[in-house]
Write a structure and sequence with these properties.
The chain is an alpha+beta fold. It has helices spanning about 30-35, 40-45, 45-50, 80-95; strands at about 10-15, 15-20, 25-30, 65, 75.
């Protein structure tokens, strides 16, 4: 018997988490922040905007939305792993 749940249309598994994406392949940034960075969107978005003296790790990635309003941010599904790896490496280097 096969007990695997079928993957939903416009849904993808990334780093063990399931994410919904829109027709452009964009995922809500808040879902990524909470699911993979264990942070609220408000704080994780600092790695996109550079606000609060944080480095930016998304300049070359596909990010959409108004960067001054973190609730609207989205990241392309194919850029999530790159972004998460950059943030985790930064945290590791600083013992965070």
């Amino acid at each position: 018997m096969n007990f695997e749940q079928p993957q939903q249309k416009n849904s993808v598994e990334i780093l063990g988490m399931q994410f919904k994406y829109d027709d452009d392949g964009m995922v809500k940034f808040g879902d990524v922040a909470r699911g993979l960075l264990n942070q609220q969107c408000q704080y994780a978005s600092e790695y996109v905007t550079g606000i609060g003296n944080s480095p930016t790790f998304a300049d070359d990635l596909r990010i959409s939305g108004d960067k001054t309003f973190y609730h609207n941010l989205k990241i392309h599904k194919d850029d999530i792993v790159t972004f998460v790896n950059r943030v985790q490496e930064y945290r590791k280097e600083r013992g965070l």
